[in-house]
Amino acid sequence: MSLNSETFWQSLLEHVSMADIIKENEELNNHIKNDVKKTLQWKFPNTPLQVRLFGSRIMGVGRSESDLDIFVVIGNSSGVYNDKLTPNVHFNLRTIVSAILDNKTKWELTAVLDRTFPLVTVLHKGTNIKCDINFLNRMSCDQNQLVNYIFKLQPIARYMVIFLRAWSQKHSLSRCFRSHIFILLVIFFLQVQGHLPAIKDLQTDLVPNVAPWTSNFHEFPLSKFGMKEIGVNENKTRQILHEFFKLYSTFPFHELVVCPYLGKRIFRRKLKDLMPPCFKYPLKSPVFIQDLILLDHNKGRTIKPHNLWHFQDQCRNMGYWNMKKPQ
User: Fold this and answer.
1) By C-alpha distance, which of 182, 124, 117, 183 is closest to 149?
2) Which of 212, 217, 273, 302 could be cross-linked to 202 through a Cys-Cys bond (beta carbons 3.0 to 4.6 Å apart)?
3) Are 240 and 231 in contact (CB under 8 A)?
């Protein structure tokens, strides 16, 4: 899917259509949700369970090979952020793994990650879809609701992410620059360009609902911020993607933060003073791409200098100064 090709728009629309089909396949999604709940419920007989789906497939930017992210709420949510591997967390992890292993007709266990946010990776045999099951990190699931709302405000943002996913794969960038990275880069770009409000402005007067963090938001219209929806058509989409590449081709990642929370360029050295009191500055890395909700989490922490150089070099190749007529 080349930006300057005459087949650019047709190809992008095909990718968008496929993402729509995946997102709107309620029968398949409900089938997997029900299988997860049935598999786990008998291991937690006296505990209410909720199963929530999220990730690229649910946000409408997924592909047929994309994983399905699953968040399992075990019992009643306390409304308090927790990333501690307590004995209860270890017990829940072992119980989930045991339930999966006891139901090999429906699941194939592929990995168990015992880390800050434990993850159980499985293959759902009925659909051949890889699923990542977590039960501790509610933030990622809540963040999806916010991203879906942003895609509703500016539909062109979703088109951009879908294009950038394919573009990154073509240029061998997809290992470090995954869909969640492009979602944040696109949101920040549109904020800087004056097309989206800061996340902070969407959370005006709200108190932390997953203390100390705030994951809910107001569904304000763009008109509240003096903004308008960008038309989604071939010329506008091509133009705004060129502007995206132009911005990031020279973006000084070494001194600025990609900060959707504030929606503007912020020097790293000044960030802490502009964040809530609970903010703890993460370890220094070549790239700081701030999470939408968990504000002291750097989503770009795994991007190395050579990855960044390659990304910006490819951005330079896509800028206005290299724009060619469709051929």
Assistant:
1) 183
2) 217
3) no
SS3 state at 56: helix
Long-range contacts of 42-49 (CB under 8 A, 24+ apart): 42/99, 43/95, 43/96, 43/98, 43/99, 44/74, 44/95, 47/74, 47/75, 48/75, 48/76, 49/73, 49/74
Report DSSP state, residue 118.
-
pLDDT band at residue 323 using 50, 70 and 90 as cut-offs: very low
Which pLDDT tens digit goes with each residue over 150-193?
999 999 999 999 999 999 999 999 888 999 999 999 999 999 99
What are the phi and psi torsion angles at 310 (to 5°)?
-65, -45
3-state secondary structure of 324: coil
CA separation for the pair 182, 260 (Å, rounded): 12
Outline where 80-137 has alpha helix (H). 87-101
- β pairing state of 266-267 and 256-257: antiparallel
Residue 3: strand, helix, or coil: coil
Q: Looking at residue 94, what is its pLDDT?
A: 95
- Find out whether 40 and 99 touch, Cβ atoms under 8 Å: yes
How many residues are there in the chain?
A: 327
pTM (predicted TM-score): 0.93
Distance CA(296)–CA(39), nearest Å, equals 35
Residue 117 burial (CB < 10 Å; 0-12/13-18/19+)?
middle
